[in-house]
Each structure stands twice: as C-alpha cells, then as structure tokens.
Amino acid sequence: MLRNAGGPGGENTTRPVICSLVTVIAALGFAAFSFAQPAIGPSIAPGQNLHGRFQQERHLKGITVTLTSSGSFVLAPGKGLIWRIEQPIQTVTVITPVGIRQIVNGSEVQRIEASHVPVITHFYDMLNGSLTGDWSAMHHDFAVQTTGDQRGWRTTLTPLRATDPIVGMLSSIVITGSKMVDAVNIARTNGDSERLTFFDQAISDVPLSEGDARLLTGDAVIPTD
Amino acid sequence: MKSAALAWVVVVACLSAALVFQVHRGVKLQTDMTALIPAEDRDIAISRAKDRVAEILTERVFLLVGDHDRSLARAAGAQLAKTLTDSGLTRSVTYHVSSDALKSLGKMYFPYRFGLLADVDRERLQKDQGAQIVSRALASVYGPSSIVDAKLLRYDPFLLMPEFLNHLPMFSLGLTPDEGVLSTAEASLTWVLLVVQLRGDVYSGVFQKSFISALDAAIRQASAQTPNLEVLRAGAIFYAYAGSESATREASHLGAVSLIGSIALILIVFRALRPLWLTLLAIGVGILCAFTACFLIFGGIHVVALLFGIGLNGIAIDYCLQYISARFGPAAGAPDDRLRQVLPGITIGAATTLIGYVTLMLAPFPGLLQLALFSAVGLVGSFITIVLWLPFLDSREPLGRGTRILAMANSLWRFWEGAQWRTLRWSVIAAIGLATIVGASKMRTDDDIRHQQALAANLSAQESHLRRLTGVSGGTQFILVRAPNRDAALQTEEALRQRLADAQRLGALRGFESLAQFVPSVARQRDNRELVANKLMRPYLAAYYQRLGMSGDVPAGDDGFLTLDAIGNDSPIAFLRNLVLGFGARETIDLVLLMGVSQPKMIERSISQMPGVTFVDPTADITRLLASYRRRAMILIAVSALLMLPVLVFRYGLIDGLRVMLPPAIAVLVAPPLVALIGVPFTFFSAVALVLVLSIGFDYAVFCREATPARRPVTMLGIWLAMATTLSSFGLLALSSTSAVRTFGATLVVGTILAFAFSPFASSPTRNS
C-alpha cells in the first residue's frame, strides 16, 4: 500500500534508540566476548548468566549536570538482557530477540517490536553472537582494536561507516577491563558522552528468578522491579 | 444461386482483407474480468474513487530480491532497479530510501509538534495521566535506550514527537532501512525491496508482455551473476498476464482438441475427406466473419468472449452435419435436392438459435455484447456458406453404404417408440426425475467474482510470502469520506479512525490508511496544544527541568497548524495526495484505504451511523452485479424461448409448436439440478450456458420434427454427430481452470445430452404412424 513511497520503517525515532542500544550491546557483548576468549577469561556456558551492578554517567552537551543513574543488570545468552535502573528513578528495560520494552513503575511505557524494526534483531544477534563466540555481527559495524592482556586490557570499537544512520552517530566506544569488563566510555559525534562502570559482576549457574524469566519471555505480567 | 454464391465469395474476400489489415495493426486482447461488467454505479464519486483505488493498486508492483549474501542481494536489487528504470516502462522505481527524505519528514512535523500527539499520549493527557509521560521521558533520559540530547530536551522536553512518529502507521512495515535500502532477513536470507510504479495500461496485453519480459530479462541477467538469487513478485499485472496466458492457452487447446475430435468423428462416419473440409470451410468462414465484425466494431475482443464465442459458433456444425448426412442413403439425390430436404429444418434451427444469441444482447454486459455479436455473426456466416457454397462443392454421388451407421443412429428413436423398451423408458424417466429432485435440493448459487477467476497458484504463493515478509497487506475495499471542507473531512476521519482501530482490535481488518493519521485536523491540533500546555507543561515542566539541571522555558512551536500543503512532492508521505479525491469549494472527498479486510460487514456496521462516510467494496459490488445479471439472464432465457415460439407456431401450429418446445424446455430445466449433483453451483455463467442449451435443444427438436419417418435415420445421424462435436468442445470447457468457464462447460454438456436424449419428443404421434 502506501509504503511504496519509500516507506522508511521507523528510522526517524528508532535510530537514536538503536544507537544507544548498540553502545550497551556492544559493551556487554564485548564483555561477554572477552570471557569467550580462552586467552582472556572463561566464557558463559548455556544456562549460565552474567549479572552485576552498574553506574552510568551521561554528559549531554549544553547541560551542566551529569545525569547519573545506577542499578543492576542480568544478561542471559539466547534470552536477552534486563537493564534495571534503581536510581534516580526505577525503570526496567528488557531487550530480547522479540524487541525492546521499557517499564516504569510496573507499567509498560514503550515497546518496540523487532518485527517492526528488524534492525533490532541484527543488534540482538550481535549481543548473542558475541556471547557464544560468534563475533561476525560486531565486525560488520565496527573496527575492533585490542591492547593488553588478561590482567588489564583496552579495546576500542570504531564505526566502520560514518554514514550509517545508526552506528554513524558514535565516534568511539572504549572498553577497559581485566577478568571482567570494568568500564565503557562512549563518545558520540554530537559531543555527548557517557561512562558506564561495572562492578559486583559474577557468572552464575543459578537459573533466572521467576520474575526475570517472565520479563525475558515477554510475559504480560510485569513485575514492578 | 450461382450469382449469390459468387457474391458471398466477394463478401468473404473483403472481410478477410479487413481482418488481415486489423491483425497487421495489432490485436487487442482484453483479459480483465471486470471489463465484462458494465459501469453501473450511479454515484460518480464512488465510481471515480473505485477507478482511483484500482489505479493505485494495480499500477504498483512489489519485488523482493533475496540472497544468502547480503551484499549480493543488494547488488542484484540495485541492478534490477536500474534496468527497470532504464526500460521506460515504469513511472518510478523505489529502491534507495534517501535519508534526506526522512529528515524532511521530521522537519515538516517539528514546528507543529505540540499539536501532534500519539493517540496513547493524547489519551493519557485527557485522563490526567501526564505523570506517565514524564516517567517515560525520564526513563528515556536515563535508560540504556536513551534517545535524547540537550537540544531535544529543550525543544521537546517530554519527547512527544518521537512517540508521535513511532505511531505513524508506516512504521508497521516489516522492513527497515539498511544502509538506505529497505531490507528484511529471513533465516539466512537477506531480502531487499523494490517498489515499482508502472507506466502503462496494466490490462493491455502488449504492455504486460513488454514489462514482464523486461523484468524476466533483468532477473535472468542478475541471476547470471548471483546464481542463488531469489525474487518474489506481487502485483496485479502478473495475475492479468497469467490469466490471459492461460486463457489463450486454453482457447488454443480447446480449439485443437475440439477440431481433432470433430475431424475424427467425421472421418470415421463418412470415410471420406470431402465432408470434413466442407465442415471446416463452413465453420472457418463463420469464425472469420465473427472476428472481423468484433474487430471492426469493438476494436478488439475479450478473451472470455473469444473463448465462449468460438464454442457458440460451433453450433453451425449442427446445420452443416444435417446437410452432409443427407448424402447417406439411396434416395439422397443431387446436392441441390439434399439441401432442399434439410433447408426448412436448418433454417428454423438457425433462426431460433439466432434469436437466442441476439437475446444475449439485451443484457447490458459489454462482454456479452461481444459474445452475442461474435456468435450471431459467426452463425450467419456459417449458415450462408452452407446454403450457398456447400451444394456447389459437394460430391454428386450419394453415400450408398452406411446402413449400419444409420441403423445405430436411429436407435434413440426406437428406444422412445419401441414397445419392448417401455419399462426401461419409464425407469430412465423416473431416474432422471429423481436425480432432478435430489439435485434441486442441492442447488446453490455462487456469484462471488473471486471464485470465478483462476488466480495462478504460483503467483498467490509468492504474493503471500512477500506479504508475510513485508507486512504489506492488500485489499480493494475503502471508505469514502465526504465533508463540506478540508478540516471537516479530517475531523470525520479522526472519528472514523477510532472506530477502525476498534474494528482492527477485533480482527475485522489488518490496517488502514487515512490522511488524518498523518495530518490531524486543525481542531484536533488546537485541542492537543491545549492539552499539552495545561496538562503537561504547566504541572510538570519546572520540576522536570530542575531534576535535569535545566532552566528556562520551552521555545514555542509554530503558531500555525500543519496542513496537507506542508507535504512536499518529494516527501516520504507524498503518496497521501492519492487519498484526496475531490477538493472543491463545496465539498471535500477523501479516501480511506482498508487493508486485509476479513469482516466487511462489521466495518460497514461500525461506520453506518456516521454522516458522509460510505464503505465501498468493489469486489462485493461486482459480486452483487453478477447476482443481478444471473437473475436477468434467467429472464432472458424465458424471453428468448417466447421469442422463438412464434417461429414454431407459424410453421407447426400451436400444439405442435409447443411440442417442439418440450425437449429444449426439459434440457434447460433439468440440467442445472443435475450439475448441482456434482457440486457445480448455479452462476451467471450457468445461465449463459442455458441460453445455448436452449438453442441447441431447439435445433435438435426442429430437425426431428422436420424429418419424415423415411429420413429419420439420416436426421438422427446429423444430430448424433452434432451432439458429439458439441460435447467434444464443451466437455473440455468443463475442465477449464477458470471456474466461470468450468460451470459454463458442465451445464452445457449435461444440457446438450438432455436436449439430444429427448429430441424425438418433438415429433407428433400422428406423424409417427
């Protein structure tokens, strides 16, 4: 029908969303990847999951205040990512192969279906692929450069195509870590930047909590935290 | 006689010359089934809207190009796009989505952002739930999927604009731009989309052929470099082309088998070549006349008229075989005597048939008019040839042998008259009567146009695959919105939108497209601004900005309102202009396109109370028309029978005239219930078949009535052969892939057999003794 007129599928609004996602996915994906490298550390086996806490400092050009948030996350290979902000507001973002959902105070305020915006699938593949050691999705978009060893390493991701509407919004992602990822610094072309610091990370064999499992299966029942 | 025969030679020569000239200029073969149906809509707006929608829908072609290698798929897509653009057969080929076009969309909306609210946000503000919007904004600011920068927070602090854009219906497409190309992935395949707008008449055979061969060549060329390339296609032109191809193929197969069948029959019975080529000559001249007349009068011919017309023209074989069979027997006489013997019978037969065909013209179907003209002219041409040429060309020698064949031919008569067959006779009549009653209880009518047309299965499969991948759903239904002015029309569409969204949730349709989804009415924009100012900015902005370390006011948007004029020609939503049907001082008429409608009745009901809103279902309208013409055709049959009666009464008197009507009447009344037994529904096309059954029935009855007891075997041989040739042509129609043709064929086959079986009834008992 009308889609012929160059129907642009949700690029306009989803582009920045995807851009932010890719930073997180790239960072966490890389974190997982680092475990997957025998030279650097242990990998996450199927059934295991990675959980930890984070602090995020976001600098928006033109705003003097640093937007700081903190919370916890759970990353389950093949299932998805739960990003739980506890301070300054409580929000839960769930990224699965099906799409992205944002939940505030127990009610879903945003949902982007991967079936509507299939590029989400690509980035999810990036995340999941890197967990299982398939690094090709990441290499499709970034030049990856790593220095150091298991005691301390630093990896720089540079977008391959500056004109790409999504990854082109990033100037670089710098990930530093040792056994686990310690920090991710993201710089954007518009002058904004953010720093993610991870701590208390652990790889666990304990199955996901019932609430988390439900979040990842997209169950209608949404826990408040 | 001789001069008349010569005059006919001159006429036929002129017609041949005219035909050759016409064929040289190019023959237009129409294939669109809907072209057979008259433009009967009295509402000009609705019929213009139908044309517009048909144009929008039929001129569009979707192609998905897929390969396991993303870059190969993209290269093939680009190559295909270029070849098609260069072909000159397209108005536009959309492959690369320019990011400038997308920016222009954002630019267009941004000044009016406070008047543009996503439905969910508008509802929240109406319910005083602005806090939810604030939470969402905060979640976006802090969340991992942050879409904000300082500038956006300044101009659109609560991120209303992204939400509005995200809810535009175009985002439901299952494709996303991947480096400027709309793509989707399926397993390991990458598909890229091309949307082609055709430049040409989709229903013209010439255009179909040139576009499809250009496309096929382009695909072949691309496949040469990318061996595993897959291409899915969808568009009306492919169905139209496949339809005309299969109809043409069927027509030629039909012609061939019918010809072979008839040739074999004549050769077996007469064991001579002359009867064969005399028959072919009579039929050939008839078809030549018919073609020429159709081309001269209509400038072309519809495939359905051609398909049925050749069949209807075949009735001339009845008269031809009556004359040729007269050569059998010792008393056959010279060719002129033979003609004299059969002339009354074949003249009355041809006259009644002609009446039957001409009656078809009373139904104002353009296709029927063509069919009637084709058949009537063909019949007259063949008849003149039989009467004027055949005696000159025929052998003077009677065929002395053939006693066995004649005896066999006469067996039907013996069956109806022989005392020894009495019990069997009544059993047969009882069996037919019972089958008729059972069949009558199973009879059902089916006027749905979609059941009459054969859609190429391969194309349907490709199309549904393509729909699944792209989310593009089809449909020809729409809603016509009429209002005194532009804003009133948009307000009506806003009200409509609510109801359609409800219907969509209930599964009555998959989606819809209206102007109001992209450009809200001024009234709605004004209301939205007030909601944003009073329910969002005033209560929440100060605290929100403080939390983010910001201060100051939000810069006001544009004072004016977004209107359709803001949509530029190169805007990604320029297609919306198609939805504006009429825009005058007094009235504005808009289209709302509906997609994937599964419950038209529910939609019709839900909007029935709205003033200025009309639900239009072109397919259903055609179906309704077919139903009314089915009923009309039934009346035509009665009318043509009545018109034939005076001819019979004039020759045979009232009682015997009515007796002659008995066999065709039985055939017409009993055939539909009998075919119902094998599940064939009664349609308009069955009714047309009955018109022919009536004519055939009259022929056989008249031949029997005219035959003196001595000439009965010869007459019956002619009827046998006539029936056999009719069955060989129409028996094949019953196997057609087009349901309309199949129904026609089945009804005709059964009707013809019945007309044959009961034909001796026409002869009065006094003549029997």
Keywords:
heterodimer; A: 225 residues; alpha+beta; 41% strand; disordered N terminus; disordered C terminus; B: 769 residues; 64% helix; elongated
Question: What can you tell me about this protein's structure?
Answer:
The complex is a heterodimer of chains A (225) and B (769). Chain A is α+β, with helices and mostly antiparallel strands. Chain A has an eleven-stranded antiparallel beta sheet, with helices on both faces. Chain A is built from four helices and eleven strands; from the N terminus they run αββββββααβββββα. In chain A, strand 7 (142-149) and strand 8 form a beta hairpin. Chain A has one domain: Lipoprotein localisation LolA/LolB/LppX (outer membrane lipoprotein receptor (LolB), chain A), CATH 2.50.20.10. By secondary structure, chain B is of the alpha+beta class. Chain B has a domain at 2-24 and 272-442 and 621-768. Helix content of chain B is 64%, strand content 9%. In chain B, helix 9 (205-225) crosses helix 10, helix 11 runs antiparallel to helix 13 (316-325) and helix 13 (316-325) packs antiparallel against helix 14. The chains are: A alpha+beta (225), B alpha+beta (769). At the A-B interface, helix 1, strand 4, strand 5, strand 6 and helix 2 of A face helix 4, helix 6, helix 7, helix 8 and strand 4 of B.
